[in-house]
Design a protein that fits this description.
Layout (H helix, E strand, L loop, with lengths): L1 H18 L7 E5 L15 H6 L1 H7 L3 E4 L3 E2 L11 E5 L6 H13 L3 E6 L10 H6 L11 E2 L2 E3 L2 E3 L13 E4 L4 E4 L14 H16 L4 E4 L40 H14 L7 E4 L5 H9 L4 E2 L3 H5 L6 H12 L9 E3 L8 H5 L6 H8 L3 E5 L19 H4 L6 H4 L37 H4 L6 H11 L3 H5 L1 E7 L3 E7 L5 E7 L5 E3 L1 H5 L4 E7 L10 E3 L3 E3 L4 E4 L1
Parallel strand pairs: 1-2, 1-15, 2-5, 5-11, 11-12, 12-13, 14-15
Antiparallel strand pairs: 3-4, 6-10, 7-8, 9-10, 16-17, 17-18, 18-23, 19-22, 20-21, 20-23
Helix pairs in contact: 6-7, 12-16
């Protein structure tokens, strides 16, 4: 009897914990503030602009908006170089504007998640000059090392390279040491071997929690701490890349260190000590599957799954998708949820990665597969990359690569302003200039043109967000089936009559698919939604024994 009671209490406790996790089986929506909506005509998006468009997000049905950095910054890396972790940059507004945004969001039942950028600060942060001057405890807030002398010549301590090209070390002539910067020289790395620094960052979290945020997304978490021996990283032979490119090194000493997880655990404790609803942690780690899974154990609710960005593409077969998705789902720890990143501010847009005909494929997978979906602003209307000239390029990752390689490394193409309507500058700003050019397709591809049209990208996305909340998706079984190496079927079911099916045509020709035989589904089902351009009518009944699937089309049956 005692064992039965204990088991019951454990099950009840686990169920209660899961019920408090409001993000389960929902979509989270990333906003890149510079590009979402400008309220004052300066051509740069801001907080009041976002607040004015929160009704759009409520209409879409997402659970939370995640804001890329809005902190005080000299904008060397467009906000990821932070000069004050507890204030808003004047470009975006004020703390009062932020409070108004949170209040409006809560009134619409939207949660607010902030970017937390803990790996580095700006060199304009008040801590840095104090560290240069060796004022305690700031002297240890950054990673400082003596020069290595070779034949009487000063050289960096080791061969570590910045993500933005060139040495990750910068000489400071006042302190007479090098400081580490894994990104731009204006972004010195913080030193998490300093207990005082760790407490400072916890206080940053406490500050924003008091202002009502519902969680954090942690930027580039694998780089938080480095191997204390500061050894040279192994070179990768025959990459074809210049010696200044970080892709020429195996980053075994600058990423994925064990201590990173302990730091995350301490932040989880801070968030859990906050009153109100349970707080979410999303972590950005471009790393191996086992190391990604480890983030769950130490407090991340959504360790980002980037498979649709960095493992799969328009070249991938249905079998590639099945193998990689199955392996991932089989790795999720008990009680945790999978997640599926559709796009983000650092990666080419889904429609550009897979082709415009397949723009809905990844959002459909994110909706039908179990777990959390992550949309990037513009995904819901099918926005695509806008190719920029060298003269138009502003991203440091592109500028530092030079005119010959900027288009390989620049993140500007996926960061162009949101296309609200067909008026001047796509309705993004009343001003005459935008910080990045608007995509020229905005007159036909925009939210206003798609609102109320069920077969538009927006109409499709809205239905996908709604489907995510369906009991079949929340608790049903999951099966992936490759059909003749030309199509992929994803089946979610509670039982034979309560079934959702996603079919994806991976070819450039029309396929006739006997889905009822391959997938063991009812012989007649209704079209829930179909990819834009497929000309398949939502609500129509189809014989699953012979479905005509247009080239590159995706369809969901229910």
């Amino acid at each position: 009897m005692y064992r039965v009671l204990v088991l019951f209490l454990l099950i009840a406790s686990d169920s209660l914990a899961q019920n408090s996790e409001w993000w389960r089986d929902t979509f989270v929506y990333q906003i890149y503030p510079r590009s979402f909506k400008d309220s004052n005509g300066d051509g740069i998006g801001d907080l009041n602009g976002i607040t004015s468009k929160l009704d759009h997000l409520a209409d879409l049905g997402i659970s939370a908006l995640w804001l890329s950095p809005i902190y005080t910054s000299p904008m060397v890396d467009f906000g990821y170089d932070i000069a004050n972790f507890t204030n808003i940059d004047s470009i975006f507004g004020t703390l009062s504007d932020f409070s108004k945004l949170v209040t409006k969001a809560k009134s619409l039942n939207l949660k607010v998640v902030l970017d937390f950028v803990p790996n580095h600060s700006s060199d304009k942060h008040a801590w840095f000059p104090k560290s240069v001057q060796k004022v305690k405890p700031y002297d240890e807030y950054y990673v400082w090392r003596d020069a290595k002398m070779v034949n009487g010549t000063r050289q960096p301590p080791n061969n570590w390279l910045s993500a933005f090209q060139g040495s990750a070390w910068e000489w400071n002539n006042v302190r007479k040491q090098y400081y580490l910067h894994q990104f731009a020289a204006g972004q010195p790395d913080l030193n998490y071997r300093s207990s005082a620094l760790q407490e400072e960052m916890k206080n940053v979290l406490r500050f924003w929690l008091k202002l009502g945020v519902d969680g954090i997304r942690i930027d580039t978490i694998p780089n938080l701490i480095e191997d204390s021996r500061f050894l040279d990283e192994p070179k990768i032979p025959n990459t074809g890349l210049p010696d200044t490119d970080p892709g020429t090194l195996q980053h075994i000493y600058t990423a994925d260190q064990d201590q990173t997880y302990d730091i995350l655990k301490s932040w989880r404790e801070v968030l859990d000590s906050s009153n109100g609803t349970k707080k979410i942690i999303l972590t950005e780690a471009w790393t191996s599957l086992p190391l990604t899974m480890k983030y769950y154990t130490y407090g991340s609710n959504v360790p980002f799954n980037f498979m649709f960005i960095n493992q799969l593409g328009n070249y991938s077969t249905p079998l590639d998708f099945k193998r990689i998705i199955d392996r991932y789902l089989n790795s999720i720890p008990p009680g945790q949820q999978a997640n599926w990143v559709v796009g983000n501010h650092d990666s080419h847009r889904s429609g550009s990665r897979y082709g415009e005909q397949r723009a809905n494929q990844i959002p459909m997978l994110a909706a039908v597969l179990p777990g959390v979906g992550v949309l990037y602003n513009g995904d819901e209307i099918g926005m695509i990359d806008r190719q920029l000239t060298w003269a138009e390029t502003v991203d440091p990752a592109g500028c530092n690569a030079g005119p010959g390689r900027y288009n390989v490394t620049s993140r500007d193409p996926e960061r162009t302003p949101f296309q609200w309507d067909g008026t001047k500058n796509a309705g993004f700003t009343s001003g005459n200039k935008t910080w990045l050019p608007v995509h020229p397709n905005y007159k036909t591809l925009n939210l206003a043109a798609q609102k109320g049209v069920s077969t538009s990208h927006y109409g499709v996305t809205k239905q996908l967000v709604l489907l995510k909340k369906d009991q079949i998706i929340r608790t049903g079984s999951t099966q992936l089936v490759v059909i003749g190496n030309e199509a992929l079927g994803v089946v979610r079911r509670l039982d034979f009559s309560r079934t959702v099916v996603l079919l994806i045509n991976f070819t450039e020709k029309q396929l006739k698919v006997d889905a009822s035989s391959w997938l063991n589904i009812p012989e007649v089902m209704s079209v829930y939604v179909a990819s834009v351009g497929s000309k398949i009518v939502p609500g129509s009944r189809v014989n699953t024994g012979g479905i005509n699937l247009p080239a590159a089309a995706s369809i969901i049956l229910k």
